Amino acid sequence: MVSFDRERTEDRAVELLTDLSLTDYEARTFVGLLRLGRGSAREVSDVVEVPRSRVYDAVESLHEMGLVDIRYGTPKEFIPVSHETTVRKFVVRYEDLTQELSDVLNQLNPTGRETEQIGVWTVTGSKNITRRVVEFINDAKGEIILMSDEALLTDEITDALVRAKEKERDVYVTAVDSETEDVDSVPSDSTVVETFWTWSRSHISRILLVNDEVTLVSVEQQVGDGETAEVAIWGRGTKNNLVVVLRTILAVQFGEDREAFETGTASLETTDDPTEASPDTDDRPDADGHDE
């Protein structure tokens, strides 16, 4: 008689195995073998709800996955691999699959001409903004300029900057407040420059410019009595007005030997971008094309 706790654990094991792409029969057969230690098709069928003929099919699949060994005789006996081996095989399998997925996705460039993103998008909350900053840094193909409140230089961001330096990207880091002196958290070979204006009373939290074509600006916004929340706007595209303005401002500090900046005449549009807006990042286009 199987105890209630054991039965509940086995049911959960079946659920997890099916989540990891095993069929219901394969998962039940494997769990049945774990209960028995080893067994024939008849013995497995007796302890789990799998017809004997389907046990053979399930075992063949499990054997191909390296999860079950077969001892040939009359009758055949099936032996599950150890728990550690089982977990390791799934880890390796999904590492390979995720790497292949990454390679395939990198090849899926837009089939048509990419359109410039002229709109300005908003992100609310420091956690969501940090996630967006890390994403932009990770995607950098050229120069990265980050001006940030020291408290917002999280491990996630500094790790991303380190990876960027390892990829030989040019990284410039500066504080938003001229009184900030602790720069130990930034990559050692990054260029640390003095802030070129005083932000201590402006509540600006961070400015990011990547590749001269992606920028993000965040501020602390009052949301209640004594409470504030970080809110950011970001834009993408060499002719995006937000990018043009900040790129021009930052060029004054980081060198004027760049290509001439063209200021477009298009107004800030705010059409929805389904590839960017997602619930977990809380990205929203500004209403009516105005800054919030």
The CATH topology of the largest domain corresponds to Endonuclease, Chain A
Biggest sheet, strands in spatial order? 6-5-4-7-8-9-3-10
**Residue-averaged pLDDT:** 77
Query: How many angstroms separate the termini?
Result: 65 Å
Low-confidence stretches: 178-185, 192-201, 256-281, 287-292
Specify the number of helices: 8
- Element string (H = helix, E = strand): HHHHEEHEHEHEEEEEHE
Biggest β-sheet strands, sense, barrel:
8 strands, mixed
Share of helical residues: 25-40%
- Label the CATH architecture of the largest domain: 2-Layer Sandwich
Count of the separate structural domains: 2
Total number of strands: 10
- Which structural class is indicated by helix and strand composition? alpha+beta
Assigned CATH superfamily of the largest domain: Endonuclease Chain A
Description:
The protein is an alpha+beta fold and 292 residues long. Helix 1 packs across helix 2 (24-36), helix 2 (24-36) packs across helix 3 (41-47) and helix 6 packs parallel to helix 7. It has helices spanning 4-19, 24-36, 41-47, 52-64, 83-107, 126-138, 155-166, 241-254, and strands at 68-71, 77-80, 121-124, 144-148, 171-175, 191-192, 204-210, 214-224, 227-236, 283-285. Helices cover 39% and strands 19% of the residues. The protein starts with a helix and ends in a 7-residue tail after the last strand. The chain has two domains: 4-83, Arc Repressor Mutant, subunit A, CATH 1.10.10.10; 121-289, Endonuclease, Chain A.
